[in-house]
Amino acid sequence: MLTPLAYIAQRWTPSPRTLRRAALSAVVMSVLIIVTGGAVRLTGSGLGCDTWPKCTEDSLIVTPEQGYRGLIEFGNRMLTYVLSAAVGWAIIATRSTKPWRRNLTRWGWAQFWIVMSNAVIGGITVWMGLNPWTVAGHFLAANALLTVAVITWHRTGEGDTPPRPRVPGPVRKLSWAITITSGLLIALGTTVTGAGKHAGDSSDVPRMPWDWTNAAHLHAIAAWVVCALALAMWLVLRVVDAPDDTRARARDLLIVLLAQGAIGYVQYFSGVPEILVAVHMLGSSLMWIAVLRLALSLRERPVPTADIPAQNDSALASA
């Protein structure tokens, strides 16, 4: 039986540019859903819809009685459908490539299942009254989606041959260190927000059981470690004469880290204003994208080209 995706694939072949755009749209929407999710928390709208999957016990959509906080929360829920559409476009585009790149399609479907899973986590978060641990899980799942989306986007520009290293082994190990510590940095960020003042609702919401300033100090230490590793990577790539695009990725990561660190310190010493927290969340996503792009640039999967039989001069002359 012909599936809808197979039916589309028989009648449409996306250009490489369209394929890249489809994958990029999922990346953009993954970042946007993280930022708007932060806006829900920062405006105290986490329980703007007090249940899930409905907005209230009696209404599927927001009601006038819920005010602007209900609109913000419901709007963020509706944005999930836009995210799903972007992921769906990526799945259709990867499935319609000729020849069919099955592994690339699997990356697209992985995004779909993460979106569905995180929607359920979001619902559980509402049911549990914005428990900070489920809020943290909701945020980390959104970053998992961003991870898969970035990998899919990168893979659309590669072939399906086994990866070949572009730098020596120790450099790749340094990249792993950057990736792991950056992931830890993001996770530590959830302990700051989980104990901090922006609980996500105007009512009393439980917080993580520690002083948020101590968590912020630990978060800052991790940030300095990532910065040191990123600086080391930038220097090492110059020493080993790495490809230009790889060195550019290391430079981009350093720039994002410096900007993100500056924002972090300003927000800490200015009383954690909502607007700076939102910008810091955007910076977190951009930092993670930069980390992933650097790691992925350290190896390559060449796109196979069709071999054209060589012709001798006499054959060309008689043509």
Can you tell me the CATH topology of the largest domain? A middle domain of Talin 1
Structurally, the number of domains stands at: 2
Strand order of the largest sheet: 1-2
Structural class: mainly alpha
How helical, in percent, are the residues? Answer: over 70%
SS strand fraction: under 5%
- What is the ordering of alpha helices and beta strands? HHHHHEHHHHEH
Termini separation comes to 48 Å
CATH architecture of the largest domain: Up-down Bundle
Tally of extended strands? 2
Quickly count the helices: 10
| Backbone CA Rg | 23 Å
Basic shape: flat
What top-tier CATH class of the largest domain fits best?
Mainly Alpha
Mean pLDDT score: 92
Unreliable residue runs = 306-319
Task: Give the oligomer, counting copies of the same chain as homo and different chains as hetero.
Answer: single chain
Tell me the major beta sheet.
2 strands, antiparallel
Tell me what you see in this structure.
- The protein has helices at residues 4-11, 16-42, 67-95, 102-127, 132-155, 169-195, 212-239, 244-269, 274-296, 313-318, and strands spanning 164-165, 299-300.
- The chain has 319 residues and is mainly alpha-helical.
- The protein has two domains: 1-160, A middle domain of Talin 1; 164-301, Four Helix Bundle (Hemerythrin (Met), subunit A).
- The chain has a two-stranded antiparallel sheet.
- Helix 2 runs antiparallel to helix 5 (132-155) and helix 2 (16-42) runs antiparallel to helix 9 (274-296).
- Residues 306-319 have low confidence and may be disordered.
